[in-house]
Amino acid sequence: MKKYSAILIIFLTSCGAFCTAQTSQISIVEDFKPSTVNQPGQEYPQVNSQGYARFQIKAPDAKSVVVSLGLGGAKGGTELFKGENGFWTGTTAGSMDEGFHYYHVTVDGGVFNDPGALNFYGSTRWESGIEIPAHDQEFYALKNVPHGHVQQILFPSKSTNTSRRAYVYTPPSYSKEQSKRFPVLYLQHGWGEDETAWSNQGRVNLIMDNLIAEGKIKPFIIVMTYGMTNEIKWGGMASFKIEPFQTVLVDELIPYVDANFRTIANQPNRAMAGLSMGGMETHTITLNKPDVFSQYALLSGGIYTPEEIKDKSKVKLIFISCGSRENPDRVQTAVKGLKEAGLNAVSYVSDQTGHEFQTWRRSLKELAPLLFKN
């Protein structure tokens, strides 16, 4: 197995996409393989067993090529170097967190997607994606188990004067047990993403299929819709108004789902969860509409306080999670307070991850078995 040495000089105060590092001599293992979310037949980008990523872009006339990793490129840049054949190649300075990451390529100041990678909607645009193999990736792997269905629906929205889109996951037993009705989780994406995020980036259907096959959860329906977030620019969250989306969700989408799917259409069998900004939406709407949802989950999306819960008898579960590189103490302290107030509250901290989809995949895996218990 070939190795080469790289001088690693990174000044970081927290991890994010790259682990915290100091000036040191690093041996990079040359066992790079194409990312699992590459375009068909494309060799780059590649990842190795240590979590490093290597990129290669053909741009024979370019003067500068940089890969920017993370939502909006916030997790740092990797400079590529030009070879004689017109291909620019470079490797990340450090290993990346396990799981999914967005990225884009800047060529001479212009922002482009990597033609070798599949695209995923994030940062209010379609971004390239890369998957760093995780030690626990089996829980969202595609396996030979019965599979549910993810279908697109278009539902009428009088408040926005249009038809809006949602995606609905139905468990494998939904099509077989024609007389059975199912609880529903309304699951929201984060800022800059849309209703495709939980299926494409989050692997929600595979997580559910695997948990159901293992007998770890009660099957339920999941509904994912656009959270009206992209009208708000980055940094402008203070001006966000929940009322338009609350109307779409509570007054338009839920009645449509209850009329067109075999749901158990009552508060005890309805939950809401969201990641990041979707957690903010979940927090506000569940408090505004305690007669609609009985189970709440915030995934890197803030906390609840006991004072906010006006009628504890209506709340069956509060789940709050984050990555270990976010603010785990705040999450755990909040849940301790909720428990002391007599609420069924659970915290979860994803090890060695930050504000990213591996945190939220793991959070959903922990949340799902807790939902809709008798």
UniProtKB/TrEMBL annotation:
InterPro entries: AB_hydrolase_fold, Esterase-like, Ig-like_fold, Ig_E-set, Mycobacterial_A85_antigen. Keywords: Signal. Residues 1-19 form the signal peptide. The keyword Signal applies. It comes from the Bacteria. SUPFAM superfamilies: alpha/beta-Hydrolases (SSF53474), E set domains (SSF81296). Pfam families: Esterase. The keyword Transcription does not apply. PROSITE patterns: PROKAR_LIPOPROTEIN (PS51257). This is Esterase. It comes from Flavobacterium pokkalii. The lineage of its organism: Bacteria, Pseudomonadati, Bacteroidota, Flavobacteriia, Flavobacteriales.
